[in-house]
Amino acid sequence: MNASESRSGAHRPSGKKGKKTTVAGIVLAVVVGGYTLLRPSINEATGWNLPALPGKQVAKDSVADNSPSPVSEKKSSSRSVPKQTESAKPLTPRVESPTRSERDESAQSPGPLASKMTRGDPQSGTSAVSNADKSDLEYGLLREISPDRFLSPAGVLYTPGSAEGHRLEHLRRHTEDQPNRSGKHGVFDGDMEGALVTIDKAYEKAQANQRTTKEVDGKRTIYTVDMGKRVGFVGGRDGQRSRNPMARRVRLVLEGNRLITAFPL
Amino acid sequence: MAQPESFRSCLEVNSVTHPDSNSDVRHSVGSCPICEQGLCSIRACGLVDDKPSHGLVVCDECEAIWLQPNVQGVHIYADAETPKCPIDQSPLYHGNNRWATLDDIDRLGWSDAVNPDLTYQPDSDDS
Ligand SMILES: [Zn+2]
């Protein structure tokens, strides 16, 4: 409501955005200041109880455009989770948003993997996302949309399953070499955080059919995506024999948007 | 793995599938023709008096399942989230079954299908 009010006097489209913002800001400041000063008098004279303005309201509204409500999405079941970039929007950089309290609630009831996943901060410190916001995300990337079910920004779903008990734990096998394992064993660079980011990029490329081969086998889809640069190395016994060559392709095995396994090739 | 115990206890508390598969030797019949990286390992299922009544071959990457020790044959998939043995519907990884021992494989009559070069013990790679 306040966001639309603050935008009503100035059109958003490009051009003299900075200047208009300044003018709008001055007007808004005058209005807000006047309201704040006059509110007690009006209340006293009329017997009304006009609400006070929260201190950070203006600052919050100025960044609210990019913050769709994550609340409804959080409650949605995984079956109705959007497959594509819609799901990425809640993770766009944000400063304190009005929905902060709801996000805190989710942070207070982490899933069973959270204690492991949030251990250690992701290495990338360049994002505008604050540390507090990132700590709400598993591995700084995944949102827990329901207990034990995690959604990536690109829309990849990580759920229970596999011999390891959870797809993320299966994926963890591909963040370390298994030199005694026969055959090849793809290992992602960058630990879990790196693996998850690479998988998201591969998924986006696969959806866009960029440098991707696709095989469909019943419910399963197997993508092999050329990432155009190193994303890991080939381990296992075969990899060791050939001095662990770098891997620049990723194979994704999916059921819908649910990840079954992924590894570098 | 660095912190397997803490993770396992988390899983148990939350009644998520209990991984049974990280400490056993796995005997395999081949590399997976579908994902091309998994090992197709034998599970001994339908245990009666600790003896298997049937076997499965399961890819440890993509979880393709074969009912016979021939991975060129027809494969199926279990449910991705709650995988079950397609024959007796016991949970695939923590039900009335296990990664087959050589004895199990002998009882199943599948010994000739095992490729000893593919035998793998996940614990052997733990640091
Ligand atoms: Zn496979």
UniProtKB/TrEMBL annotation, chain A:
This is Uncharacterized protein. Residues 97-106 have a biased composition (Basic and acidic residues). Keywords: Membrane, Transmembrane, Transmembrane helix. Residues 121-132 have a biased composition (Polar residues). Residues 1-23, 58-132 are annotated as: Disordered. Residues 9-20 have a biased composition (Basic residues). The chain crosses the membrane at residues 21-38.
Automatic annotation (TrEMBL), chain B:
It comes from the Bacteria. This is Uncharacterized protein. It comes from Rhodopirellula europaea 6C.
